[in-house]
Write the structure tokens for this entry.
Amino acid sequence: MAEKGKAGVAEIDKDFINDFPWINFPKEWKIKMVPPFAEATVRFYVELPNGAIKSVYFDRYGKLGADYDYWEVFQIQPRDDNRAPKRCDKNDITKLLEIIESDSFYE
């Protein structure tokens, strides 16, 4: 068994931390932080007042579908596998919040 505090520790680029944008979520939203998986750098769920739940992740290394740093949002409740997720640039937090809030953000 690994020592406490040593298992799974990764070096973090301090410039990345300092450069990462702040997000001011609307107070009506519930935010649930979840461990990143599938190469995501950051991941969280958002429950909106209408009961919809969106999954949001940040792909810093472009390993999940784009060749730039981006946010990706998709709806997990109610589920619809026929819809494609929507993306926006890391620093476009206004667009990110619009995508999360929208009921018709799929193209």
User: Anything to note?
Assistant: Residues 44-107 form one domain. The radius of gyration is 15 Å.
